[in-house]
Each structure stands twice: as structure tokens, then as C-alpha cells.
Write a structure and sequence with these properties.
Oligomer: single chain
Strand content: 35-45%
Number of strands: 9
Structural class: alpha+beta
CATH class of the largest domain: Alpha Beta
Helix content: 25-40%
Distance between the termini: 7 Å
Number of domains: 2
Number of helices: 3
Low-confidence stretches: 178-185, 195-206
Order of helices and strands: EEHEEEHEHEEE
Amino acid sequence: MTETIITVQGEYSAWYPAERATVAASVRTDGPGRDDVFSRAVEASDALRNLIESIHDKDAGPVTWWSSDSVRVWSERPWNNEGKQLDPVFHAAVDFTAKFMEFEALARWVESAVGIDGVAVNSIEWALTDATRTSATVEVRSRAVKDAVAKASVYAQSIGLGSVTAIALADPGMLGDPSGGGSGPQPVFARGAMRSAAFDSSGTPQVALKPEEIAVASIVDARFVAK
């Protein structure tokens, strides 16, 4: 009976709603006097730190973890458009990171944080819990293998052969790649948006957070014998 080797690549991806958010915020102050710049940075940092600590609980949230660095102060002497070096300008900075498990609390926190002079919310990274990520990875890998079987079956049928039997499964690039390279682990993509919303009835600006879904993807190389 004629046997034919069929090598295919199976793939599958699925989208999952974000469950966690990691916020990067910072305090930035500047001015002509070092002491004043440092003092304003410390004041803003204390206010932001208190805002985080008031809702921090590693088990119940809304903030499950946070960190900050020390106040950094430096100076520079800018040049004007006539080529003259000006008096020193001092800068101070402190960076904060906080992990949230409740997005409504996150929105309220962002509103309060950006109301502190010198504070900016720089980014929000959306993520899945470890448990969800693990189960999602198992699911998409299984579906990627099934996709490879389906492709191989179609190829076999198109040349008049019947069933296919897997003889090798591997991560991408590991089946007969002469260079020995591979594409490595499949990525997990997190997309999200942080945007300003309309004003409420009292005229107070509000922040609307829109976490988008996270894609978990898998690709597998497979080799089959078709008879």
C-alpha cells in the first residue's frame, strides 16, 4: 500500500477577557530650585502612595501588589536659540507600579491619581490570571493539534489516500528545519485602551477604562503518514 508523508502546521487562537491590570504611574516635577523640586516630588509621591495603600490587600484587592522607587533628582543646563547656556533646571521623578484585580476600582483610582499635581498614569497592561493562562494554553495547543490533523486529512483525501497517522509533533521550526531554529514560544497579546470619557452631570471629568480581550495563540508542526 502506498504511503505518503505529509507535514503540516496547525494553529489556533482564542480571545479571553482581561482579569488583571498593571498600572505604571509616575511623579515628575521640575523647576529652577532643587529643594522646591524635591519637596514637590516627595509631597506628590506621598499622596500617590497613600492612595495605593488605602486599597491594597494582597488577597482581596483591589490592589494586590505595588512598588515604587526612591526620588531621583538631576539637573541640566538648557541652551536658548541664541546658543547661550541658561541657568540649571532641576528635575525629580518617582515611578510607581500597581496591580489591580478590580477594574472599577482601577478607574476610580486613575481619576484620583491624575488629580495629584505632578502625577501621570503612563500605561495599563492587561493580563490573565495564572490559572486562566494555563488552562487557555492547554486549550489552544490541543486545538492547534486538531487543526493539523484536519489539514493533513484534507491533503491525504485530495490525492486519493485515506486515514492519516501522526508520527511527529513539535514546536514550530523543529521538524526538519536545517537551520535548527524555531520561532520560540507563542506570544500572548494584551490589548487595551485608557481614554477620557465625557463629563458627568456635575461637570467632573471621569476616566473610562476599556480593557480589550487577550489573545492566546499556539502553532504546532506535525508530520503524518497517509495510507
